[in-house]
Write a structure and sequence with these properties.
By secondary structure, this protein is mainly α. It contains 4 helices and no strands. The mean pLDDT is 95.
Amino acid sequence: MQLAEELQISSKRAMLIFYRSQTGQRIHDPKYGYQIMSDTYIVNDIISEIAGR
C-alpha cells in the first residue's frame, strides 16, 4: 500500500510493480537482508529501481 501511495497508483498496479522488481524477487532471500529492512526502505529501493530503468 505504501508503494501505491508514494506513486499515486492503484494497489493492484503497485503489486505488479513489486513482484516484477528485483527487490520483490529478492525479498525472501536472506542474503539480501530485506527481512530486517523497513517498509519505507523497501519502497524507496523499488522506486530507485524504477527510476534507473
